[in-house]
Amino acid sequence: MPLRVHDHIIGTLTLDSDQPHAFTERHERLLTIAASQVAVAIENAQLYEQLRDRAEQLEAANRELQELNDLRNEMVANVTHELRNPLTFLKGYIGLIRDGELGPVSGEQIEALNVINEKTDSVSRLISDILALERITPSSLHRERHNLIDIVARAVSDAKVGLLTEGRSLTLTHEPGSDAILVDIDKDRINQVIYNLITNAVKFTRDGGAITVATHPPKGDIRFARVTIRDTGIGIAPDKLAYVFERFYQVDPMVGYQQGGAGLGLAIVQRIVEAHGGRVWAESESGQGSTFTFTLPVVADDDNAATET
Ligand code: ADP
To answer: 157, CA 20 to 30 Å: which among 98, 169, 193, 304?
Structure first.
């Protein structure tokens, strides 16, 4: 009897007897049924084996990727650390030369030194950002109770001053959504989150556009407040959206570089928000603007009552 799986014959099932005419039609029918069941069983066993091999291969590939990722993180952390010292020297010497402590300097030389100084500062900022990514953990946060509305309102009004000083013509508004939303947060870190998100909205929105920051209180059983930063800027293509929170990722590296970024701002945002127990995500379409949303757990009512009494 052929062992048939779909259109393939994967073997045969034979039954022998030393007696002539030992098998009847009934035996034949029985053997047909047995053969079809054996064929299915063999196919299942083969599929299972293939699946197990695949799972093992995937697991090995995953382990390798994780190891590479750890190696990359370690290398970035080490290099960053090693860059810090020479930069301090560099800054020191730039200052000494510029102040004429090492001999007379011309106006042109001072101008050049100012450029070097500025570039040194941006490398320093980059290093601080990379190190911040390593250091931000739930236990490193200095949490205190704050009204999230006040924190966001303040961050927006600070950003408005920045817009004026940079000569950008964008409207930036805050929609508070409630009077008070109590949160236990590391204020400096959350300010950094809002600052990074507003800075991106400003960077990727042309003059004449609008940026709206809104704070939403928790709804129903959901014990999380939401802050959204919506812009009318260039937007992000759907296939790129999943990557924007990765370290060093920029949708368009040329534009990103011109804007003075290094692809770390959103990675820092994600790290800080998640250390607080919240989530951050982006929604966007090319040319249609973007909305970034982050959530933060609010203080439980009982907890709040306990501190008020
Ligand atoms: P960078 O500091 O280079 O801006 P980020 O991590 O903050 O790095 O952002 C990563 C990339 O995500 C940016 O380079 C840009 O391509 C894209 N992006 C972030 N925010 C926006 C936005 N509001 N509108 C359009 N693109 C954005």
So the answer is: 304
